[in-house]
Description:
By secondary structure, this protein is of the alpha/beta class. It has twelve helices and six strands. The protein has helices at 22-26, 48-59, 72-75, 124-137, 147-156, 164-173, 185-190, 192-203, 209-218, 221-225, 233-240, 264-277; strands at residues 8-11, 14-17, 38-42, 96-99, 116-121, 179-184. It has a four-stranded parallel sheet, sandwiched between helices. A two-stranded antiparallel ribbon has the order 1-2. A hairpin with a 2-residue loop joins β1 (8-11) and β2 (14-17). α8 packs across α9 (209-218). The longest helix is centred in the middle third of the chain and has 14 residues, at 124-137. It is globular, with a radius of gyration of 18 Å.
Amino acid sequence: MEISKSYIINFKGYNFSSHVDMDLLENIENFETRDDDVFIITYPKSGTVWAQQLLSLIYFEEHRNGTENLETIYRVPFFEYSRYQIDIENRPSPRLFASHIPYYLAPKNLKNKKTKVIYIYRNPKDVLVSYFYFSNWVKVHEPTDTIEHYMEKFLDGKVVGSLWFDHIRGWYEHKHDFNILFMMYEDMKKDLRSSVLKMCSFLQKELSEEDMDAVVNQATFENMKSLPQANYTNIIKSQVGMRHQDGHFMRKGTIGDWKHHLTVEQSERFDRIFQRKMKGVPLEFIWD
Ligand code: A3P
């Protein structure tokens, strides 16, 4: 199944959404990172906005200082998507970024091992389901009629983000080149406080008990669901566009939703491919 060219730009073997910043991409290798930059790296639908919310809460004092009304992309801009006219080069430090880039397109400087990278990963069956709904909702992604067809595209890497297996494998196998922390969506879901502690320890940020409570509380699914910024509500309405009114960025936020969508046969086929493609990658996954 082919993906329509109008939705993607393939740059050096990786599929970006067509509104990617080509000027940045052409020079991405030489982008000057700073030691105190923080990059969240994810494959799409793995908890990016969740991590953006957490990071901005940790850095901007739970948004007490007036950042509560800022759109997420102005707190933690998307590195490779420039449509919101953010001057990422001249932002004051510490700059916080979110990105879906594969390891081999990372700026050279990121290998100075000082700049911090947090890689969030999620079990790919839930990623697939989340992505299926998201792509049918927002206009910048190509819609697909059935999960069966979407699974074909996903397993062929014919989606923005290319092949899930390549993304995670690439970052994991090159982890020694970066100052990188791997965090799992499912761990965050099961024990958000421990995950935030882990994140803070990596970021060398010490929060008081009170601040920690505030961060954890503001980053639960229930609380984020009602936040327009976390749902990109204004951005989706005004810039991205949607095909229907029933979609939500904060859709379900659960572990194991794939069980409601994949047949036993589809799931077993997925498992076989997973076993083959992830051979030798000792990352743990939680499927339900
Ligand atoms: P679902 O579609 O399964 O609900 P991304 O930000 O990378 O696009 O990922 C979006 C997914 O993360 C959505 O998954 C969304 O609901 C989930 N998510 C975002 N914030 C969350 C939170 N606080 N707790 C749990 N899941 C969250």
